[in-house]
Amino acid sequence: MSLELLILPLGFFVAAFCSGLAGFAFNLIAAGILFHFVAPQVLAPVLVMGSLVTQMVSLPHIWRAIRWRALIPQMLAGVIGTPLGVLILGVADAKQVAVAVGILLVGYAGYALARIALRVAPARFVAPAAADNAIGFAAGILGGIGGFSGALPAIWTDAQGLPKDQARARIQPFVSVMQIVAGTSLALGGFFTRESGLMFLSALPALLLGTFLGLRAFRIIPAQGFRLVLLGLLLISGLSLLA
Predict the structure, then answer these.
(1) Helix crossing, 2-22 with 26-34: angle to 10°?
(2) How far apart are CA 105 and CA 121, in angstroms?
(3) Rounded distance between C-alpha atoms, residue 130 and residue 65, angstroms
(4) Which residues contact 213 (CB under 8 A, 6 or more apart)?
């Protein structure tokens, strides 16, 4: 436990800073650091609690930009997809699924970063509601499999060339709802224990500090800088899944 209590604050600080800056990727970044030291079954509820806290702290900063009416169908599609992801997890190889997601993230981030290096402007289009809902459903499945619910919405908003405020207002509420669903599932499965509670409390100060610093960085970076951060986090997250 002593090693866990030492490494948890570091992992939570880095992940919370990234989440405060980009609105997603807490689970992916934290898991990439902490899975080497803490068993996934023990860490899963701690990550869900940490992600929920970062979302609850940062959501008020983008509240006015959120368009709930447009997001609700996508969220419902994600909620429907989450149990399917859990079922898939029971019959599929979780490592292979993680590798497939990692390849997707690395491929898209590499492609988009190459376009930026070549000074090719991102395509801008308005996605139909059916496509948004399909992304939500697929993201829910990935959330049920391994907590990857923020990856596809992040790719989708970037592909549409949305400004940073609009992108966060699309990603963050969706991730928040998916984490609530995941937390409920873990609670019903008996994963929340005294040990997980103590681990979370030990890392809470570092998590709050990372979130506030990430939010501060988000407010001062320009739009293009935000896009580079988002793509960089997608790339890092993908590489962590391939490791």
Answers:
(1) 150
(2) 20
(3) 22
(4) 17, 20
3-state secondary structure of 97: helix
Cβ contacts of residue 182 below 8 Å, gap of 6+? 48, 82, 143, 144, 147, 149
* pLDDT averaged over 10-residue windows placed end to end, the chain, 243 residues: 73 91 84 75 81 90 88 94 79 72 86 84 76 93 78 87 86 90 79 84 94 92 84 84 77
Residue 99's pLDDT is 81
Name the DSSP class of 118.
T
Predicted TM-score of the model (pTM): 0.81
Taking the C-alpha atoms of residue 45 and residue 184, their distance in angstroms, rounded to an integer, is 10
- Residue 151: the pLDDT is 83
Domain count across the chain: 1
Give the burial string for 148-174 (b: 16+ CB within 10 Å, else e): bbbbbbbbbbbbbebebbbbbbbbbbb
Domain coverage including residue 59: 2-242
Rounded Cα gap, residues 51 and 191, in angstroms: 16
Rounded CA separation 174/70 (Å)? 11
Provide the 10 A C-beta neighbour count for residue 194: 7
**How many Å apart are CA 169 and CA 43, to the nearest integer?**
28
Residue 201, number of CB atoms within 10 A of its CB: 11
